[in-house]
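Consider the tokenized backbone below.
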């Protein structure tokens, strides 16, 4: 929603700029004005965007606007009041998350700080209705907000998000927050499996192969290829190869071409070679993929002609 508003606002700004340029051209032509008057159109798009932001922020309730105030003391005071309101403030926090996540000084708005406070409020209130919104923020926000989102999801306690959070165990900046959230959600065992697999534990690999979250584990190991410590890259590549994760081939190809120590690139190349070989093996065809429309079918009783078949003989019994 917020990203769409940014696009619409700037399109409106460009549209207003174009109209102002055309109007100034016409005025210069009709009244023989100085051509430098055309420069008056330069601030028009910025003024239009600022005005649209101002109108949108004005639609927020008073406490919600104060949550993004440039003054930190006012932000904290508004946050305390909203928390005191309990569940009735959940919708207000959700509306704040729809607002621009940027600082707009002309509108007295710090969207980044407001978003962090709104996410924290949803976590403290354990607002399950906010889970879908928070998950979207994980893929569209700054990492500081993502940290707070992971904390909030752990506080809310909806264990349906476990397979979504598992890949963040391999994240460069968010692995600690993801681990804490997963443990709060009762998913300590998958966390330990992930860690053991990164230590080349074959027992853990065997369990992950049969685990219902196998795909989520694989996404986590792919993220670990770009993780904080390059020491873990060979282990992540090994785990992907042992899991026969052919979907990791593009990521491993990228690692081979990176400016990394030779032994690390060699480990990635070994895993890549194994997965490329696996990807070329023939696979079993599923029953649903076989075209049976042209195969002969067994005849039914109604399809068989019975006119020419011999009839059963009638035996006349003699009266004794």
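A designed sequence for it:
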């Amino acid at each position: 929603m917020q990203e769409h508003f940014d696009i619409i606002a700037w399109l409106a700004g460009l549209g207003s700029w174009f109209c102002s340029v055309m109007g100034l051209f016409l005025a210069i032509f009709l009244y023989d004005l100085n051509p430098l008057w055309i420069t008056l159109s330069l601030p028009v798009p910025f003024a239009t965007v600022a005005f649209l932001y101002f109108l949108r922020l004005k639609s927020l309730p008073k406490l919600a606007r104060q949550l993004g105030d440039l003054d930190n003391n006012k932000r904290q005071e508004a946050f305390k009041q909203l928390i005191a309101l309990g569940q009735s403030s959940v919708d207000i926090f959700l509306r704040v998350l729809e607002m621009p996540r940027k600082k707009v000084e002309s509108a007295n708005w710090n969207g980044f700080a407001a978003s962090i406070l709104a996410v924290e409020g949803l976590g403290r209130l354990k607002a399950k209705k906010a889970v879908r919104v928070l998950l979207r923020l994980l893929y569209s926000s700054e990492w500081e907000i993502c940290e707070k989102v992971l904390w909030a999801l752990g506080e809310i306690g909806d264990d349906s998000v476990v397979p979504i959070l598992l890949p963040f165990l391999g994240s460069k900046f968010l692995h600690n927050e993801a681990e804490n959230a997963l443990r709060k959600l009762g998913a300590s065992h998958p966390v330990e499996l992930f860690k053991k697999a990164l230590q080349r534990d074959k027992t853990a690999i065997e369990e992950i192969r049969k685990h219902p979250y196998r795909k989520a584990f694989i996404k986590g190991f792919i993220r670990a290829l770009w993780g904080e410590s390059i020491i873990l890259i060979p282990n992540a590549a090994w785990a992907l190869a042992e899991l026969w994760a052919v979907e990791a081939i593009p990521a491993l190809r990228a690692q081979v071409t990176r400016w990394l120590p030779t032994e690390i690139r060699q480990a990635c190349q070994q895993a890549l070679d194994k997965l490329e070989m696996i990807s070329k093996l023939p696979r079993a065809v599923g029953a649903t993929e076989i075209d049976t429309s042209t195969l002969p079918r067994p005849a039914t009783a109604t399809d068989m002609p019975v006119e020419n078949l011999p009839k059963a003989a009638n035996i006349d019994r003699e009266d004794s």
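The longest helix spans residues 2-31.
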